[in-house]
Write a structure and sequence with these properties.
The protein is of the alpha/beta class. It has 2 domains: about 5-195 and about 385-395, 3-Layer(aba) Sandwich (Rossmann fold); about 205-370, Rossmann fold, CATH 3.40.50.2000. The protein is built from 16 helices and 12 strands.
């Protein structure tokens, strides 16, 4: 039997200039690897391939606009999947709210594997309910019929996803544990933990000749007038409230960097709900800081992103929530010293970034060590994630369709 994988990926096939986050990065990586090595026939169901017309760029949509997009993509992807014989394909979903209709596919006998990039129930309770309700408590609410549609995309969609997916792939063990608390009837063996590693380790650059990276690094230093003796601290993420970048800015006035020149770069563009307002807030906070020079680079990709990571001495991940932390993996791949909040993707020096003095203390200790020696090049460690995912999907194809 010729196996076909139908990859339902609402964030796939967008240009790198769009700050769509880890879901896009993983989708782009898997698609690139599978098209290069062809472990099976691959059909990517993206907004472009399905002919969807977007009213606004995804990263600029309001909550209601994004909810409408999710439903439009759900209908289009589900319709396309239903044209295939469930005996001859496996469906891979790249997310939950943006996924196909899990209930319809399950009832029709399709074998579905879903990648969780974000546990949307946990995310909703943490940021919209401000942690006042635990996710396992919220997940018990099953009166989906009385919910507005935007809440159905959180609670009903995730419930149907867990119920009808044959396998769920998560990037960290803590995320698996939350799912099992929310849905205690879900068998633990149904959930596979797959850290994505440095799925690119600055992939847009690391496959090119080193001279290109060195040239871009020199350009970066000239563009921002970075001195050879300056210690560079960076964050790298979309600008949205859950990334907690204001925590880093709050720590800077408490930073003791006596005798050292320090530059801080906020790398990333505003994205998704509340992104623009959050960027304005960050710029207002940065303008008040007189002890350290802070610069906003905007959204960075490819060689520029790699060069900034290569030049950076310290990478800070102050996020209030990270499912895995792909940018942390990229920073580690370029030998940055890492400071992170105690989220799921925590690496390096783990500190309560909500405490400005505690964060400043750790940063001060790193800064006191001076510049980081990186031997002039980025390091790329191979990621086996695409091979492991291909093996999982091939194994699932041996399961009988219902």
């Amino acid at each position: 039997m010729n196996l076909e994988i139908l990859y339902s990926a609402a964030h796939a096939d967008f240009p790198d200039s769009e700050p769509l986050g880890g879901g896009k990065a993983v989708a782009d990586y898997l698609i690139r690897e599978w098209r290069a090595h062809e472990p099976f026939a691959l059909s990517v169901l993206s907004p472009g391939s399905l002919g969807l017309k977007l009213s606004n760029p995804l990263a600029q949509m309001t909550e209601l606009e994004y909810a409408r997009f999710c439903r439009e993509f759900e209908r289009a992807a589900t319709s396309e999947i239903l044209k295939r014989d469930p005996q001859r394909c496996v469906v891979l979903g790249n997310d939950i709210s943006e996924g196909p209709d899990f209930a319809v596919l399950g009832e029709r006998g399709y074998r579905v594997v879903t990648i969780f990039h974000v546990d949307v129930v946990e995310y909703f309770t943490r940021f919209y309910l401000r942690g006042l309700v635990r996710p396992e408590t919220a997940a018990r609410f099953r009166w989906f019929g009385i919910m507005p549609d935007v809440l159905k995309l959180v609670f009903e969609k995730q419930y149907q996803c867990v119920r009808h997916s044959i396998r769920i792939v998560v990037p960290s063990a803590p995320m698996r544990d939350v799912i099992l608390r929310c849905y205690p009837w879900c068998a633990s063996e149904k959930i596979m933990v797959m850290p994505w590693g440095n799925i690119a380790a600055v992939a847009a650059v690391c496959d090119r000749r080193l001279s290109i990276l060195e040239g871009e690094s020199a350009l970066i230093e000239r563009r921002y007038s970075i001195g050879e003796d300056e210690i560079v601290v960076i964050t790298l993420s979309r600008l949205s409230p859950e990334k907690g970048i204001e925590r880093l800015l709050a720590a800077l006035p408490h930073l003791d960097a006596t005798g050292k020149k320090v530059r801080v770069f906020i790398c990333g563009g505003p994205a998704y709900m509340k992104g623009r307002a959050y960027e304005r807030k960050l710029r207002r906070l940065a303008a008040r800081i007189t002890t350290t020079h802070v610069e906003f680079t905007g959204h960075v990709t490819g060689a520029q992103k790699a060069a900034l990571l290569q030049r950076a001495d310290i990478f800070v991940s102050p996020s209030k929530h990270e499912s895995y932390g792909l940018t942390i993996a990229e920073a580690l791949a370029t030998a940055c010293q890492v400071v992170s909040h105690h989220h799921y993707g925590a690496e390096g020096a783990v500190v309560d970034c909500a405490d400005p003095k505690a964060l400043a203390k750790v940063l001060g200790e790193f800064i006191a060590r001076g510049r980081t020696t990186k031997m002039g090049k980025a390091v790329r460690e191979p990621s086996p994630a695409a091979e492991r995912m291909a093996a999982l999907l091939t194994a699932i194809s041996e399961f009988p369709a219902a």
